[in-house]
Amino acid sequence: MRIDSAGWTHVGRRSHNEDSWMVREDLGLFVVADGLGGYEGGEVASRCVVDTFTGFCERVTHDPEATWPHNLRRGYSREEELLFNCTLLAQRAVLARRVGHLREMGSTVVALALGARSAAVAHVGDSRLYRLRDGRLEALTRDHSVLEEMREASGEVIERGRSPYGHLITRALGTENAEPTVRRLEVREGDVYLLCSDGLYEPLGPERIAARLGKGSAFGVAERLVQEAYALGGTDNITAIVVGVGEGHR
Question: What is the DSSP letter of 166?
């Protein structure tokens, strides 16, 4: 597939940026990680996650005989298995570095893998993947959070910004519960995907996101989304990756 992709990040109104991101069109891999654990810890954790995803994808792409840590499962696509294994390795990598002043660190992650015939998304925590298709915005991930569990149990729409549980996540890499949710995706020409940290989607909301996606190059859209989230008062680190799918095959 012909891909137009770009990422952008901003420290927001924090003293340091704990978000990390990666765009690798050559690997068909796009990752956003939002670190937890305060100064240095969050930065180390999110960078560790992104580096682990990149390293494993490079290895299996360049060496077809490379060993996968988890055996391929029947019925799962290569992209689903790739992201599942990346997440497993990232969990190990973060846990191995949780010592001393880094002992409380962790990270969310959302990753998109685009293959020649299929695609997949994996996430842990509350970083999200959106898709704009035919003018309609859809969230392709469901937060691993206390608030989302409350929504499922009650059936009520609870606004994240108005709940004391809005930022309490139930899964994160580096913690005991780091199981990813992995989903196969059908990709169509014209789709536009947005991977982002909560610092982006909270101040913008779905209507503003839908209005910006698909309006220009991936680079320009990613930059505008981040800048608008900051202008609207975003206090957290703000990160966006925009991936547009065009004609042809990669």
Answer: T
How many Cβ atoms sit within 10 Å of the Cβ of residue 177? Answer: 11
- At 15-69, the pLDDT tens digits run 999 999 999 999 999 999 999 987 679 999 999 999 999 999 999 999 988 989 8
Which pair of tokens denotes residue 125?
């925590």
**Cβ within 8 Å of residue 54, ≥6 positions away:** 22, 24, 27, 29, 31
Whether the predicted model's global pTM rises above the 0.90 cut: yes
- Where do the domains of the chain lie, and which CATH numbers do they carry? 3-245 (3.60.40.10)
Q: What's the rounded Cα separation, in Å, for the pair 31 and 133?
A: 21
- C-alpha distances (whole Å) from 187 to each of 23, 42, 168 are 18, 32, 32
DSSP letters for 11-40: -TTSSS--EEEEEETTTTEEEEEEEESSTT
Q: Helix, strand, or coil here: 224?
A: helix
Question: Which sign does the torsion angle of CA 51, 209, 1, 111 carry?
Answer: positive
Q: Checking DSSP bridges between strand 106-107 and strand 29-36, what pairing results, if any?
A: antiparallel
Contact 234, 13 (CB under 8 A): yes
